[in-house]
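Human: For the file, kindly provide a plain-text protein record giving the amino acid sequence and the backbone structure tokens, at your earliest convenience.
Assistant:
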Amino acid sequence: MTDSFIPLNYNPPDDEAVVKSAQAFRERMNTRRSVRLFSSRQVPVQVIESVIMTAASAPSGANKQPWTFCLIGDPVIKEKIREAAEKEEYENYHGRMSDEWLKDLEKFKTDWHKEFLTEAPWLIVLFKKAYDVSKNESRAKNYYVNESVGIAAGFLIAAIHMAGLVTLTHTPSPMNFLQHILGRPENERPFLLLPVGYPAEGVTVPDINRKSIDEVLVRY
């Protein structure tokens, strides 16, 4: 948020170092899995603050940084969030979701129960700012909000994994209850809810395959 420029202070690594770094990061991220069962083991708040600030370093339209991260550790608030989320999810699984959608979810054995919302030591709720509000109540436009907040979410998930923790991208629909429970202003809309912590002992995850490079990459 400045009109001045500073040196990048970038020292280009050699090609071999770039290859090794890229490969190492790819291999580390390839071990990332969504987890629904969490340990009660506590995570220092400094760790969560660090991964959030990593997410906040993401690029954004005109550097407006149109996001707010809400960190919830209070058991009472987590219980309220779970109750509201399960209410919406029950409706989703009993009428809102199409038969095709439900069929696609069968292999994951999910349902409307969301125990992870109270089991995980931390919840992070990412809000997008449709616009900013100044101290004199005037509105300032934000640009490419969904794209910017989506990139920040990707940074956050990567940072959580690199820290040795696990998470799950949870998007109960609709999510307006998060705005009310957390008392967020009108210009903020819930974008993503992530439980964060250590996996439960002996936890298992679905046996899935990721698409190959030929399925996701087109060369020109």
